[in-house]
Design brief:
Blueprint lengths: L1 E8 L1 E5 L4 E3 L4 E2 L3 E5 L6 E8 L7 E4 L2 E3 L5 H12 L11 E7 L9 H16 L6 H8 L10 E5 L12 E5 L7 E6 L10 H11 L2 H22 L3 H21 L9 H17 L4 E5 L5 E6 H14 L16
Parallel strand pairs: 7-9
Antiparallel strand pairs: 1-6, 2-5, 3-4, 5-10, 6-9, 7-8, 10-11, 12-14, 13-14
Helix pairs in contact: 1-2, 1-3, 2-3, 5-6
Bound molecules: ligand 2P0.
Ligand 2P0 binds next to α2 and α4.
């Protein structure tokens, strides 16, 4: 009997991944950059157990058993096994996999990124595989390859849809920008109504803006964002982050039929951030929204207290919800 438990944190993209060249392997049409949260905040925890006596493969998510055969979880297991040392005695034993998130699942808060990164890391430890874990995590869920690393991470689209060089790599460590903080404002923790895998395929086939973005916007933005992170230029970082989030949601509207991820509360948060930045005379807070209405706000430590108090004033919390469910630090 062997058992491995791993934890992987959520990552929040500042240059978004949206659209695939190859839907089977999750090869993206553009590069993306994200920040990985620290391991004690929002994370997935996965335990992989194997024994010669297990009768079949089984998988539980947040305590409920799920289908295993034919799923992306199954594909990740097959990928790790196919690259592992075939003389390992436990390579062919069945697996019991238990995964849980300490935050809302599938609410547009990168739960699949943390979940698949965690699974692949645990499988790698179980089957003694160290290389290629980023590209295997990518097969599970594109953005998962970025959660394989801490700090600031670049996921390269790779050179062709057939190649396996679409991998994530760290560009700066967590310690590089220790003043950086993230507030997560949970506007709605329901499952998203347009799963991102399907929605981004619809965008690729129906939006013209997505192709302009991938070809003419993202390459330049990636260079600018990389430099802003390396030089800790928060103003530039914030401007690009907000513009990229807005362009991603413009593509969602340009998709036919459109997908609406932002709601009126999300829009009020966007207005508030711009009003606060205007009041400060520079960009001190940056919003970014994934495939859901929940806001991820990047800011530096000195701004955190004042901005949090404004959020509390403008969006009073229900009395029965503890602060920590709303405000999370990087
Ligand atoms: C991102 N998102 O860069 C973007 C921004 C959502 C909006 O990566 O189909 O769950 O599993 O590869 O990774 C969500 O997409 O999609 C995502 P699949 P994934 O974070």
């Amino acid at each position: 009997m062997l058992m491995v438990t791993a934890i992987a944190p959520v990552n929040i993209a500042v240059i978004k991944y949206w659209g695939k060249k190859d839907a089977q392997k999750n090869i993206p049409i553009n590069d993306s950059i994200s920040g990985t949260l620290s391991t004690d905040v929002m994370y997935a925890k996965t335990t992989v157990y194997t024994s010669s006596t297990l009768e079949k493969n089984r998988f539980w998510l947040n305590g409920e058993e799920q289908v295993f055969e034919g799923t992306r979880i199954h594909s990740c297991v097959c990928e790790v096994r196919s690259k592992s040392d075939e003389t390992l005695p436990h390579l062919t034993w069945n697996l019991a996999i238990c995964s849980e998130n300490n935050f809302p699942t599938a609410a547009g808060l990168a739960s699949s990124a943390a979940g698949y990164a965690c699974l692949v890391y645990a499988l790698g430890a179980l089957f003694k595989l160290k290389d290629e874990l980023s590209s295997i995590a990518r097969v599970g869920s594109g953005s998962a390859c970025r959660s394989m690393y801490g700090g600031w991470v670049l996921w390269q689209k790779g050179t062709s849809s057939m190649s396996n060089d679409s991998v994530a790599r760290p560009i700066a460590s967590h310690e590089h920008w220790p003043e950086m903080r993230v507030l997560i404002l949970v506007v709605n923790d329901n499952r998203k109504k347009h799963p991102s895998t399907i929605a981004m395929q619809n965008s690729v086939t129906s939006s013209s803006l997505i192709h302009y973005r991938a070809k003419d916007v993202v390459p330049h933005r990636i260079k600018e964002m990389h430099l802003a992170i390396l030089t800790k230029d928060f103003r530039k970082f914030a401007e690009i982050t907000m513009k990229d989030s807005n362009q991603f949601h413009a593509i969602c509207l340009d998709t036919y039929p459109p997908c609406f991820y932002l709601n009126t509360v999300s829009q009020a948060i966007i207005d508030l951030v711009h009003a606060y930045n205007d009041y400060k005379g520079e960009h001190v807070v940056a919003y970014t929204f994934d495939a859901g209405p929940n806001a991820c706000l990047y800011m530096l430590e000195p701004v955190l207290e004042e901005f949090t108090s404004i959020i509390n004033y403008v969006f009073p919390q229900p009395a029965d919800i503890h602060d920590n469910d709303y405000f999370r630090g990087l």
